[in-house]
Amino acid sequence: MNNHTKVIGILALIFMFVGAGALGGSLFVISHLAGALYDQQVENATIETHEAELDALLRLVEETAEEREELDAYVLAEEDVVTFLSLLGTLGREQGVLLETKSIKSNDVGGVFEELSIETTMQGSYDSVLYTLALLESLPYQSRLESVALAEGNGVWQSTLTLYVTKHKHEL
């Protein structure tokens, strides 16, 4: 082999190694960019999913606005508590029942609501006490009666009960 062939051979080898290195480097960069591109696509897909879920929730909020407003009428507002307690006393007096509130407690039920726990006793005739209990069961509020006891003593009927009424939490 002559010198000229050796030089061309060496140059060819150098170009081959440089080309292989460039190819390897290019493949590494492409691989790295492909991973970054995949991560970006996953992030974009997650964002699109969250946006779709948010849009669905906003549509649901719009669609249920009237129903929520109607349901809200069955929940006491903070400023209505005293009026509600007065209503209880009025119901009792109109039925000839002595209705006394023994205690009022507020229990957190989560979200924007609290539950008032009102322990009450009432005294009167059998019919008037039962009718008042029926009225309490049908109050136009989100409410329930628990721990209802009815007993007769000396011709007077007495009932003890706990009335739970849902109300909005006080906003500061």
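^ that was protein a. below is b, sequence first then the tokens
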Amino acid sequence: MSARIVLKAIVDQAGAVSDSPRVRCACIAELRERLCPVSTTELGLLVGVVVVVAALILRRASGASSTLNAAIRLEIHWNERSDYIVYVALPIPSPNRWEQVTNDESDCLVTNSGRTIMLRDVEGFVVAYPNGQVVDAEFLGLPPPRAIHFLPEDGDVDETPFDYDTTQKGQSRVGVEYGPSPANPGDKSHYRTTLRNLTDQPIRVTGFSAAFVKFKRNAPVRLEPGRLYGVDEFVNWYGADEDGWLQPGAIVSDPNNWGAPPVVWIYRCETLDGTNFVTGRLREQIDNA
């Protein structure tokens, strides 16, 4: 069995596990590393475990790898932002449909049909950004609600390399910080990313991407960005103003950012007078988040 055949099987199985390109890429990348010269028997066994490994990656990407149960994670997300779209799976404990949460009363959630559910009883849920992209979910075998979706498969790739020092200079204008993700405590791949406008004038984020890091003598020197996200993703993920502008002193945050370190999130910015710059910060394995 050739490595090419095995790799094709990996791609096919990754696609079968999830429609999310982010998850499929993670599956392929993680399993590709295992394609070192091995025997035919070992390659056959590799194909057999593809679905298992891919499913684990899917759980991690969807937030289900968190050590917290569904009800606790949902409560955390509900308190994070008021503009999240939230669905719960009903009836409990054998759900067959989704109902959107419209309000809360003490320890209860109220759905659009008027039903009241104890938060602690929730087992299945979907939390999405205002544009419908999934933040976290426990689908329990149900298809996603119609208004909910993952990132579209097609997207621009940021092919412009950056020197690491260039992004560090930009932090004097827009600071980038990482911290723990409340819904995924102890998970190095999930973290809060916060941006702060440190200047006395508005600054607009026009695009951002996660960059692969090249090191020289253990120091980051070159960044190779991946998929380029636009203003819509920035506004929805970070809760920024609709036009993407950050007013002086403004702080925006995505508490559910995802990406295995070491990685640098790069933000393309512009000022009112048309000055363009980039900012970013290295997210390392040794961070306490």
